[in-house]
Amino acid sequence: MIDLLLPTVSQGLLWSLMALGVYLTYRVLDIADLTVEGTFPLGAAVAAEMLVKGFNPVTAILVAGVAGSLAGVVTGLLHTKLKIPALLAGILTMIALYSINLRVMGKANLSLLRVDTVFSFAKNIGFNSTMSVLVVGAASTLIFGLLIYWFFGTEIGAAIRATGFNPQMIRAQGVNTNLTIVLGLLLSNALVAISGAFIAQSNGFADVGMGVGTIVIGLASVIIGEVLFGTRSFKNSLISVVLGSVTYRIVIAAVLQMGMPPNDLKLFTAVLVALALALPLFKSRINARKAAE
Amino acid sequence: MLRIENVSKIFFPGSVNEKKALDNINLHMTPGDFVTVIGSNGAGKSTLLNSIAGVFSIDAGHIVIGDKDISNMPEHKRAKYIGRVFQDPMLGTAAGMMIEENLAIAARRGKVPGFSWAIKEEEREHFKGMLRELDLGLEDRLTSRVGLLSGGQRQALTLLMATMQQPQLLLLDEHTAALDPKTAEKVLGLTRNIIARHHLTTIMITHNMHDALRFGNRLIMMNAGRIVVDVAGIEKDRLAIPDLLALFEKAAGMAMDNDRLLLG
Fold this sequence. Notes:
The complex is a heterodimer. By secondary structure, chain A is mostly helical.
């Protein structure tokens, strides 16, 4: 059991950076940003290409983050400057990234077998292969979680949060909401690309198709986390999203263990997210019925 | 203080819905002027305020605050000079953020946000003191989310946020219209106190003729995008509601038709 649980938790932690990225757009900015479907494989592609070329894994991950942030800026400019609806702006960038990811890798799939990754670092320090993924996952979640928490406690972070709640209010307080929206998308996509860079190294390959369903997995993590672990404060929400990502992986591992064909995974996730999104409606109906009785 | 010169605004130009919302408006205000604005539906009252605040660009004319021409300045840059309270109590605050977070944002109105902490510890006492003066029991709820407050509390908080950094111009767009009469009276009382204490130059739109008469030192009436009545000082003090209605009919050539207009 524990043999199964540890790698699952580790995967959840590596994916939690992506979930945090989705949280920043979906909840903080109040935008459903589909760019992530392209930035997740972008991060994987950039990191894989750099690792194959012999760069240090940490450098590769950071450059992947920069690439992701640029993609976020593109979506942000399409939305704020060209007034394209956010959902469509994200789709445009996502589609463009498909070609870019192919260009980055030069082909559809890049193997990382026999290449030093961030996990080989951990192994060199003396962790076994299971533990190395857990350590890297926990460390990356902690580092980026603290960075996000710090940033959103600053003036500019507060301005981004206020933009999501009430753009009119924060403009009346002197903040350029075009700038805060672009910044939010930048940060979100940087995190998603960094998550992609980690997952590519953990899987041992980068694939141009690995971004399919990223947004839904992200939403699943965010919503599961919020329902199970609460949203009392910003800090609480961040922790909830990370725990939600881990819980999602455990649920997936459990249903696969129970014999669900892996091909049905995306269908299962979509149904799960649809149900979770409908939860507030169900709740209010039940409450209304209770009140009527 | 505020000079509005030959300002015009046309909505949907060239379409069947074309509407001349502001028609060559001129308005000069001296420091400390408190102008109340009344007028029928679609007279251009809110359009005038939104033009000053920069919500949209004007088609002609100039708007000058102090000696700064703000006609082409984007909305967020004008916030340095202007404090605003909206009609909808939901619009002035960020519902999902705490009272202290909202106040801290307002304490930095018009400054480019940086990487220092959004709230400093020493600010909290200051916030508490200001909230205590509102007398709404908010001083012990600094970490409550604003979404939990009533409409009146949110509007009082928005008023505090608009004025805690003294603006050169305060714009109130029917800020008590969505409140029940008792709460509206309380918020109006706060408004009067804050304006008097800081000698704020203010424009207040109201749908209540009685309020238009008892507040401010000057009253303007708008109709079809124009200012049709402009009275100040003793002349304004002598007016009663029937005089206002008569003034309007004479100036506009028709009876006042504001379906929300309150005569009491």
